């Protein structure tokens, strides 16, 4: 594989033409990423789970507070109930392992209380944000590790359609919030997935100061590029319409418009 190939898969005909002066297997793996939604029933071993969690815990963590936890769900009936919460995403039941990543302020609050501190800092939006960011960085480390071991993954943000149902299902205490799931399993080679192109770098990369003058034509190019990808997958062929629908009405949020309330019910004040 030449170094031009992965750029092409990620960006299509408008791929960067300057050749990298440094390259690595890790970058190649990152550029080859694709979400997998078709799995074989083959199990993921406990030893592999240990490796994925070690990769996750190796991610940076804000002030090393490690404000996250994860629940590994293997029970098929529990996964089926969680797939239901996620709007019927049946790959959650097809794959053998679902990791539910949690913003976890309970541990830090307990440590603060035992040290005689009020813990009131945990009631602020900043603390919830730090916990969510920590969880996301850890989860992405685990996802990339899984891919490097030949496994497939897909995130399941749709668990936030009903975070309180997820919390009940997983027995989450107060001050712990389910951020998203990560499905892990063996991709079914009979139902392969392609690399999904991304926006051109000129749309997302700014130099020194924010400049949106290249947005319009970059988005136009991307719309054309992605139409083929979506058509092949049998999906609505317009990225622009997807974005517009997601933000065009509260209904597009699929219940996640009540997230602040769900956070509060889990004990997060978000001050
Ligand atoms: C936080 C997060 C939540 C996601 N939630 C879902 C989901 O609920 N269902 C799903 O099928 N894909 C989900 N995805 C996967 C995205 O749809 C996918 O990453 C995106 O379309 C780009 O495709 P790719 O990962 O194959 O490159 C999620 C991704 C992220 C980062």
TrEMBL record:
Gene3D superfamilies: NADH Oxidase (3.40.109.10). Keywords: Flavoprotein, FMN, NADP, Oxidoreductase. It holds the Pfam family Nitroreductase. The keyword Oxidoreductase applies. Residues 33-186 form the Nitroreductase domain. One of its GO terms (molecular function) is oxidoreductase activity. Belongs to the flavin oxidoreductase frp family. This is Nitroreductase. It comes from Amycolatopsis methanolica 239.
């Amino acid at each position: 594989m030449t170094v031009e190939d992965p750029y092409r898969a990620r960006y299509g005909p408008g791929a960067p033409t300057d050749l990298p002066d440094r390259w690595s297997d890790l970058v190649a793996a990152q550029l080859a990423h694709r979400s997998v939604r078709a799995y074989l029933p083959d199990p993921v071993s406990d030893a592999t789970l240990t490796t994925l969690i070690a990769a996750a815990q190796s991610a940076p963590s804000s002030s090393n507070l490690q404000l996250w936890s994860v629940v590994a769900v293997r029970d098929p009936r529990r996964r089926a109930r969680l797939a239901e919460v996620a709007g019927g995403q049946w790959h959650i039941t097809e794959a053998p392992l679902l990791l539910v990543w949690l913003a976890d302020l309970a541990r830090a609050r307990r440590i603060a209380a035992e040290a005689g501190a009020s813990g009131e800092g945990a009631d602020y939006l900043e603390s919830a944000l730090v916990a969510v960011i920590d969880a996301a960085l850890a989860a992405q480390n685990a996802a990339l590790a899984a891919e490097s071991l030949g496994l497939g993954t897909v995130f399941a943000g749709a668990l936030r359609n009903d975070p309180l149902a997820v919390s009940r299902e997983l027995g989450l205490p107060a001050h712990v919030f389910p951020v998203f799931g990560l499905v892990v399993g063996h991709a079914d080679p009979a139902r392969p997935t392609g690399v999904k192109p991304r926006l051109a770098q000129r749309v997302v990369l700014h130099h020194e100061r924010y400049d949106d003058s290249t947005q319009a034509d970059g988005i136009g190019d991307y719309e054309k590029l992605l139409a083929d990808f979506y058509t092949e997958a049998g999906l609505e062929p317009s990225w622009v319409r997807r974005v517009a629908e997601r933000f065009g009405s509260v209904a597009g949020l699929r219940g996640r418009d009540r997230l602040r309330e769900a956070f509060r019910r889990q004990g997060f004040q978000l001050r």
